[in-house]
Amino acid sequence: MLKLSIMAVELKRDNVRCELAKGDDLGHTRCALCGIRPYSFCRCLNEDELKVFSKISSERMFSDKQNIFLQQEKSKNLYNITEGNIKIYQLLTDGRLQIIGFLYPGDFFGSYRQGKYNYSAQAIGNVKVCVFNETTLNKHLEKNPKLSRELLNITANELTLAQDRIRVLGKLTATERMANFILNISDQRARIKWQDNPVSLPMNRQDIADYLGLTIATVSREITRLKTSNIIKVLSASQIYINDRTKLSLLCT
Hints:
This protein has 253 residues and is of the alpha+beta class. Helix content is 40%, strand content 25%. The protein folds into two domains: 4-156, Jelly Rolls, CATH 2.60.120.10; 169-250, Winged helix-like DNA-binding domain superfamily/Winged helix DNA-binding domain (Arc Repressor Mutant, subunit A, Orthogonal Bundle). A hairpin with a 2-residue loop joins strand 11 and strand 12.
């Protein structure tokens, strides 16, 4: 069980360790050199617009298990992932942790309600993000309708995550949940033109179990079941190779 008071202390410690990334020595803008730019909301900007845009953001790095922000914390910034993975989760009233989903490079996050974040966000491994002051970004968006439209499309992903989890925890069996999970991660990597097979699973088994609404034992059993059926091959604790994507897809229906 995680308690909000304990997490607040951890966040303060984490913020001390966070570092702002340095600019590029060649004089190019950080945004122009960003490898994830074609899949982020800033992809619609030309080079001149990008130079202006780069001035309203900063780059920040987080290490494994560092909190980017906490649920109910006053919202000040919005974020776009350029490297690494992030899990977003909520604390229930009884102290239990509920994982909403996992975010990948190109994902924009930091939604809020009444000036406070709706959920907590934590780094999985080393993470690099672009940080935008909420007020500054909103003013910039008012002057850039095409950027505003792109951001609207990107932020719809947060709603999709919630909808996906509702479906996963609905009538799907444990096997169907696991198959969906593996394929979703593979599809996410394909979206940003990264290798989608083998499938990288940077999150630990407990996080997978929490997200899927299963126990760790059930997650391990379902992975073994898929492996025995020769649908997947387990390369390591964090990598799975899909031997038969068609069969894996059929398990999702």
